[in-house]
Amino acid sequence: MGIFDRLRGKTIEAQAAPQLMTDAFNYYLPIAFGAIPREEAMTVPSVARCRNLIAGTIATFPLELYKKSTGEELGKPVWLEQPAVNQSRSVTIAWTVDSLLFYGVAYWRVTEVYFDDGRPARFEWIAPGRVSFDSDPVSQFIVRYYIDGKEVPMSGLGSLITFQGLDEGVLQRGARTLRSAIDLETASRVATSTPMPSGVLKNTGADLSQEEVTAILAAWKAAREKRSTAYLTSTLEYQPTAFSPRDMMFVDAIQQMSTQVARMMNVPAYYISADQNTSMTYANVQDERRQFVSLSLAPYVHAIQDRLSMDDITARGNIVKFDVEDAFLAVNALERLAVIEKMLALGLITVDQAMEMENLSPNGNNDAPDLL
Q: 251 or 261: whose pLDDT is higher?
């Protein structure tokens, strides 16, 4: 059992987390006026695709601990491998990014702390909709948090770690775009579920009584719900009064709306098949990935790793970072070997270090004692 395991689970007072001001924080509430409910927004395929691209990709990046002054990789505590006891790291990170993306804020509750310095040792992700707070009317600083209406400590075991996003979240910022996308999906579904366009039955014969008209309309509706064909007498003619889905150009409208959603969520349109004019080749896939990380993922990556590097969680002088390079931006084997070969020729690394860079077991020490 390591020192991190021996010290975990003790209940003591942790270092106080930074306070937040409500005048900046009120905008991040999931219940903000005019915001679209998350579950409703996720019914739009382009929104779900963008969310899964951002949250799912970042969730695959390992978290590492480094010494800030030298960049040396340090042995990481257990919570960097698995922040929550009952969840894998990738699941916790994915829902943290989800909260930042949709609400502009994410919460972790401290479930265990270290005995020696009181810093958090384990967490659990808390859905933003479960959290509320009170603020000081003069300073506008938050003075207490609630989870499901129950007050929680402001520091130590049971307290909340808050991750602030770089904007107010797409549910608030993109409310009009999301509402248009939802309405378009609804209209398309209604149009495709209707057997044929709405219309009128025109009678060219003798006038019919109200009872006869009602009976004919009921029979027509029942026939159209059961089969795709119907029979009309010589005096009756069907005249459509609504456009068909093709005439209404739903396909073009959905494609255009998907592009708007991609812009709103800061994802390249071709990543969600909203841009038909982009062709990807092996030569530019690495450049496109780097651009995706730099422009789309970086705000969430830095919001999480910078918060986890603050003094109330990580010891001063150390920082937490996502290993984006190895997880997502690694070059192909031939390019890596060419770089390693040049580093060996210049004496910058040893053979053992080169083998470690390629996740190969270093050569054994021939001077080691014989254990047999």
A: 261
Separation between Cα atoms, residue 272 and residue 266, nearest integer Å: 12
In the three-class reduction of DSSP (H, G, I as helix; E, B as strand; rest coil), residue 8 is classed as strand
Q: Where are the beta strands (DSSP E) in 37-76?
A: 63-67, 73-74
Going by the DSSP 8-state scheme, the letter that residue 256 receives in this structure is H
DSSP helix/strand/coil, 108: strand
160 pLDDT tier (thresholds 50, 70, 90): very high
**From 3.40.47.10, 1.10.12.10, 1.20.1440.230, 1.20.1270.210, which CATH number describes the 1-195+245-330 domain?**
1.20.1270.210
**3-class secondary structure, 349:** coil
Q: What is the bridge-based pairing of β-strands 318-322 and 63-67? A: antiparallel
Greatest alpha-carbon span in the chain: 112
C-alpha dist (Å) from residue 92 to 9, 57, 58, 292, 313: 20, 13, 11, 22, 17
Instruction: Return the structure tokens found at 328.
Output: 């997502």
**124: Cβ contacts below 8 Å, ≥ 6 apart:** 83, 84, 85, 86, 87, 92, 108, 109, 111
The DSSP 8-state label assigned to residue 360 in this structure reads: -
Give every CB contact of residue 244 below 8 A, 6+ residues apart in sequence: 191, 197
Report CA 116 to chain centroid distance, whole Å: 35
Neighbour-count burial of 37, counting CB atoms closer than 10 A to its CB (0-12 exposed, 13-18 middle, 19+ buried): middle
User: What DSSP string describes 272-341?
Assistant: GT--TT----HHHHHHHHHHHIIIIIHHHHHHHHHHHTSTTTS-TTEEEEE-HHHHH-PPPHHHHHHHHH
pTM for this predicted structure: 0.71
pLDDT of residue 65: 93
Q: pLDDT tens digits, residue range 87-140? A: 999 999 999 999 999 999 999 999 999 988 889 999 999 999 999 999 888 887
In the sheet with 73-74, reading across from the earlier edge strand, the strands are: 73-74, 63-67, 318-322
Left if phi > 0, otherwise alpha if psi is -120 to 50, otherwise beta: which for 167?
A: beta
DSSP 176-223: HHHHHHHHHHHHHHHHHHSSS--EEEEE-SS---HHHHHHHHHHHHHH
Measure Cα distances from 98 to 170, 238, 256, 307, 361 in Å: 11, 50, 24, 16, 38
